[in-house]
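Slide 14.
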Amino acid sequence: MLITDDELKKLILRTNLTDKDGMGQIEEYIKNSGSNLYEALIEKNIATDEKLGILVSDYLKLPFVVLAKISIPEDVYRIVPERLARKQKVVCFGMDEKGLKLAMTNPKNQPVIDAISRKTNKKVSTYLATERDIVGTFHIYQKDLQTTFNRLIEESTSQPLKDIPIIRIVDLIISYANQDKASDIHLEPQEKDTVVRYRIDGMLHDIFHLPINLHDRIITRIKVLSRLRTDEHLAAQDGKMRFNTEEETIDIRVSILPIVDGEKAVLRLLSTHARQFSLSDLGMSDEDLNKLARAMKKSYGMILSTGPTGSGKSTTIYSILKLINRREKNITTIEDPVEYRIKGVNQINVNPKTSLTFASGLRSILRQDPNIIFVGEIRDMETAGIAVNAALTGHLVVSTLHTNDAATALPRLIDMKVEPFLVASTINIIVAQRLVRKICEMCKTSTDTTLEELYNDFPKGVLEKHFGSEKKFQIYSGPGCKICHMTGFSGRIGVFEMLVVSKEIKRLITEKADADEIVKQAIKEGMSTMLDDGIEKVKKGLTTIEEVLRVTKVETT
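Slide 15: predicted structure.
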């Protein structure tokens, strides 16, 4: 960081981004979370990464650049070698008759500037860029994976099969997946070859193929790293491993499953960077953030996050836990499994082999004098009953539930034999969410459309609510480019609905009203549905109509 925390603190107060009381809360948060001031300001939704970068650059009178909004030609960014770029956090993003343009986290790093100038024999202009922005740009160095592996194998063809560099191949598969921000790696044996697929932004992509005669050795290498049995080929095995990159250490969950053509491996990458998001980074509107903030300030009751697998519930929950983590609070979690460590939080792994289930673990937690409890998932009647009773007896309980929307979580709990009056008394707020892919900023284009063209996809009333009497408006899409692997999308963002349990909704729950009645009342009280939130993100050019339709079930009548 180019300025000290004290300088940044004065700058934040001077620009009225927060007051002295707010800064005091941020400093308390830093003590508990281990974050620095810059990270804490982002995580507490005081400012975005870009906003802080602009503030610092103005304060230091340095030019500022946002690399995420620039398309950098390959011959330009390769002027700075990848190793130097990663070590010194520097990216060459422009070149003209005046010389090179370098984005740096420290534009005053004269030795690096002089070295690049001497090597290229060109004058150098430096710009400030945030570390997040620069690190997020490093994927541009990625070579074509199929070519890389073909070359590796060709170089080894003169050697015996045992000398083909399997360790190097496995390391490349994982490191390239991490650079591509993949959440999962699939290694699928087929009749003639092995297909390596990455799940990027929720979608599986075939990345490259490897000779089938290498498959067993690759699986063995993964088993060794995960401490699994290498002599077992007919049973499913689960394990975990760690992989070190220059920027971070990645925890990886490993699942091996025997299929017809051999053993399939799926690796879940649990990158620490994936949880370094504030709630606003995740896509929550200011109104929804305020509703959630009020619920988090309560010392008892329940906060529920709902949605299908892969909808971002864990990310939201971890963001909430980081915000409410204070030294005077005892926070204990029971998870299956613990995906990310949070400083100062007691985290427990479910372990069926020792009869440590959600229900039994939750009973034990209640004897540990907790203030806040996170239950990874409410799966059964026993866990639901204990969680509700914990919320009734002065604890704040945070948990997840698999339901389609916020309102259906209420009858779901009642189906688990929790009395309606207990459900009404304990739940503070229900957060329902889905993840949509964000349009790639590098190839984003706009087209004109009319309301009539959207009537086939969305209810007329919903469209008129968001677009009013506008005859024509712009929608955005990405035709695809090298940066987004020709998908037109890069990254994901959440669409949310927040159901606050008001007095009227408590009455409806107690009377066992169905979910439709509860939704109508919640909308009347100001709830935006996931469809509403999705359409707002389409208007802002963050995602496409097709993405919103994909994750929300819409009835046009």
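Speaker note: The domain at 142-273 is CATH 3.30.450.90 (Beta-Lactamase).
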